[in-house]
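A favour, since you know our structure tokens better than I do. Just paste the record in under my message, thanks.
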Amino acid sequence: MINVPYVFHLTRMMYENTTLKGFILLGFSEYPDFQVLLFFSFLIAYSLCILENIFLMVLVCLNSQLHTPMYFFLCNLSFLDICLTTLIQPKFLLTFLNMRSISFHECMGQLYLYIALQSLEYLLLTVMSYDRYVSICNPLHYNLILNNKVCVILSAVTWLISLIDPAPIMRLLTKLPFCKSHEIDHLFCDSVPLLNLSCGSITTVGITILIEVLVLPVPAFSFTLYSYTSIISVILKIQSAKGRLKAFSTCSSHLTVVSMLYLTLTCIYFVPPSSNSSSNNSKTVSLLNIILIPILNPVLYSLRNKEVKNAFIKLKKHKRISTN
């Protein structure tokens, strides 16, 4: 006969033990011979990401020609990329130095901020798609529709929503008993690896996550899709090939970033487990999301944008004149 009070007490003790001990982030511990090489590789990638995004933000601030809605939201995106990679990378780098432990509260805090920043990213990209939609589909009223006040309000609302978004999931996750293992076979504290460690019922958490997806990411993606469908429709109506190319070039960088983000998120959270050969696949895709995309964002917006190139050339000339 099962002793219910004893089982309850044992579960409680396991939960408290997990809370006190925290977790172990395995990272890429399966490659013991490459820890030093991987450490310096990811350290260089982290440094590159920070420098690129800071440079882009400074360039936009110093050049008055870039004080437009598009670059205002781009600065928001660069700041977001800095926050996202700084949230994950330092702790991830420590795993290569055999410093893998993370406390329960630190893990939950990291997960909360990660969900919030991910929500912010696709909300910002949705707002940026609206910016491109107005610019191409309604150019005569662009400055009227997206004036400074509207841009600030849109930015503030996206930040506010993203900070509130993780609350229901985190409320349920922090109450789960994690007694299967203390080892998180991932690069950071993500929801899926954590749920795999729980020995309690995760049905409610799963339903909550599904509701969150239906409430925020799906409408954001739908609106972005509608915006670009309208944009492409307008571009195709332009008679000259040069005009079509010029119109498409103004939104091609953003379209590339959006495609990469939603593709990686789909691979991480929506590909069935049977489709993944191992946990390494999940780690690799996560690397694209937390390292590669933050590095590529400023590169894509710079190399494929004449305004940014011209601003950089102007800044270099101004430096030479001031030096002489």
In short: Residues 1-20, 273-277 have pLDDT under 50 and may be disordered. The first helix runs from residue 4 to 21. Residues 39 and 93 are 6 Å apart (CA to CA). The beta strands are 23-25, 101-102, 183-184.
